[in-house]
Amino acid sequence: MSAKFFIDKVIEAEESPFDRQTRISWWDQEKLRNAKVLVVGAGAIGNETLKNLALLGIGNIYIVDFDTVSTSNLSRTVLFRKTDKGKQKAEVAAIRTKELALQEDACVHWFHGDAVWELGTGVFREMDVVLGCLDNVETRFFVNRQCWLANTPWIDAGIYELGGHVTVFTPPEPPCYECGVSNEQRAAARKRYSCDDFKRTLLEEGKMPTVQVTSSLVSAIQVQETLKLLCGQRVESGKKIYFQGKVNDFDILNLPKNHNCFGHVSYPEIISLPLTNSIKLREFLEFVSKEQLSGLGATLDYRGDRTFVVSVVCKSCGKSIKLNKPSFRIFDVETICANCQGGVVNNLVQSEQVSVKQTIAEFNLAQTSDELLNISLWQLGIPYRHVVAVHDQEQNYKYYELSQDNSFIQV
Ligand SMILES: [Zn+2]
Ligand SMILES: [Zn+2]
Q1: What is the DSSP letter of 9?
Q2: Cα 176 to averaged position of ligand 1 atoms, centre (Å)
Q3: Are residues 249 and 314 in the same domain?
Q4: Peptide bond into 174 cis (omega under 30)
Q5: Which end of the chain is less congested by CB atoms within 10 angstroms, N or C?
């Protein structure tokens, strides 16, 4: 009898792909199965991280990237094939992650778009942890702000040549990513934009010197920290794990805490509304003007979040150009009127001065023009599943999540 029992146990263990890891004393496979993890960036680090999450049995994986697969990516991206050239990274990564996923009912979702402007705070709020697999400071700033607003932990990973770093951040406890940021890094975060906030037309993206083995190493540390966090184990937040592979120097750096840091803003309470960002501004304002929400005079407030530009003055001739768009959808060439377009490049080079622009930061039924009331929240620049700030007549703020938005596609 005992021999038969013994054999059954052996077969059972060998049939579970998670047998060896669940033998770790503190392991909680059920927590990993229920976890929601957002991976921002499906490049060199993102590929490794997604492969790791799939093999570990993470149950709900979300992937965002705005880029497409190119030949030069292939040496560092285990999920991409030569035949994927030109396809959206987020989608290909999601399909391959789903194929690798060892959790039977794993759900993998993808979103092709700009994480900075197209993903709202509600997406970050839904996650158990956000993994930054990024190559730029701007997106790190953004992920950090969103995670603080939503009170969601995030783990930053970065690489350079044979070196890399990983840092766990656990809001609301400082430090955050922004606490220790230098002025150079702050300037680097702005390089996609002209000095007056518009997108640069001509921009050579940085091509980082690195190699697959480094991204693999850094991703392994990032995902190991993720496992500890998800299984309720101690993580050292705010300590940068820093590795220089060329000389095998492994260091732990304490990031500075800045108690006056702008990054530490969080929402006191978030109210979910059964709305999406496809509704018109007028319908939204009517909805939040209900007595039990913000009441009559409800005003959508953009300050500190994004800028809506009504018009700019042509840098060349001074004529007013109507735009009615959020600043992140305006390219610098649009600030030169059609008549002056002939000398676009010269004008842009010569005019380092800031554009004269008319912007709107507040919208309500009484003061906003009919033209703007008839555009959608998306056209106004509000991303999917965003949390928006609305104040009443007494300037009391409420924070509403557009909870019906679903920007992600499930494979
Ligand atoms: Zn901070
Ligand atoms: Zn002009």
Answers
A1: H
A2: 4
A3: no
A4: no
A5: N
